Input
Amino acid sequence: MKIYINGTFHTKEEAKISVYDHGLLYGDGVFEGIRVYNGRVFKLDEHLKRLYESANSIMLAMPMTFDELRHATVLTVRENNMRDAYIRLIITRGIGSLGLNPFSCEKPQVIIIVDKIALYPKEMYEHGMRIVTVPTQRNMAEAIPPQVKSLNYLNNILAKIEAINAGVEEAIMLNSYGLVAECTGDNIFVVKNNVIMTPPSYMGVLEGITRNTVMELAGQLSYTAKQRILTRHDLFSSDECFLTGSAAEIVPVTHVDGRTISDGTPGYVTKQLMIAFKKLTETTGTPVFAAA
Ligand code: PMP
Output
């Protein structure tokens, strides 16, 4: 495995950064999780755009241009010679002093890891997943904006712990108004009367690339897709429920807080979206091996 750090490649054992990096000391930095399907990077520009927006939001001056980073990302996949993979792109604030001041840090560090990822067991894609609402709320935008994909994931990790303690794989996180925000690493959708709905980003949600892709695919399949405020009741009384994320793709949800969604099997619209999504991932994206 070849890991990119600031322009050079290292083995997994040798890929190391300073313990003075504020990414480690404070979770100060931003990241992306991107997929490679069939030798093509899926939605690369969309992920890079969100990365640059996240960096701008936390006043982190990106050390590379968009095109340079795009090139480095494709190059790292090519160096690893993988046609199906998961890319973890990380920009840390860089090496600084032990104080909080981010402007004491020398230069942001760019790390690109290309590996495999399998978030949930295969049977969950066929039979559906059980999820529960957890006590840990999604961060308020006034505290740590959920729209920023930062290295500070403790909010989500606390919710994940509560899900695991409850014996399930994923948690529904509510915002401080008690309204549905998202899951710890995925966006959430419901289908009701053939309308596909997901909470708007101002509910405290990361604007998922998969979420946006699903909204587009819904339109192509002649469904109405809307951003709408959702309560737990809306989840319980939905016809279908599913999660989306780059690593997770589309996961059907069949039980929410012990309530069975419809007949307790993955829904028809969800399955149609899963097929359309798979087709899109296999036929679009930035070519890794053909590019010079
Ligand atoms: N919400 C959170 C909190 C996430 O971390 C992620 C990404 N893992 C998502 C939603 C899904 O975003 P995307 O579809 O861009 O992967």
